[in-house]
Design brief:
Blueprint (H helix, E strand, L loop, with lengths): L1 E12 L3 E15 L8 H10 L12 E7 L5 E7 L2 E8 L2
Antiparallel strand pairs: 1-2, 1-5, 3-4, 4-5
């Protein structure tokens, strides 16, 4: 399955919270296999292998929110250290 990676322009701060101001296409046509989409760990490993996430990123600081659509594919929202970081959207 192919995905596009979108990153955010954020407004706010740690005390009051953050809000997504705008969403930007960062990387297109990321190829992910079914095995990459089994768990948070396998997804993170695949993103690290493709140099989309630094090897130093700790999975304990990440939260993956898997939202299934009507086609059975997932949009995956990723928070880092409690703040929105990026999302993976399926390419149809």
């Amino acid at each position: 399955m192919k995905y596009n990676l979108y990153t955010y322009d954020m407004l706010g701060n740690d005390e009051e919270g953050f809000e997504v101001n705008n969403v930007y296409l960062n990387t297109s046509n990321i190829e992910l296999d079914d095995c990459d989409l089994e768990t948070d760990d396998t997804l993170l490993a695949a993103l690290k292998t493709q140099d989309l996430v630094s090897n130093s990123v700790d999975i304990d600081k990440l939260n993956f929110d898997w939202q299934e659509d009507s086609n059975g594919n997932f949009t995956i929202y990723i928070d880092y250290d409690g703040n929105p970081a990026c999302e993976l959207r399926p390419v149809y």
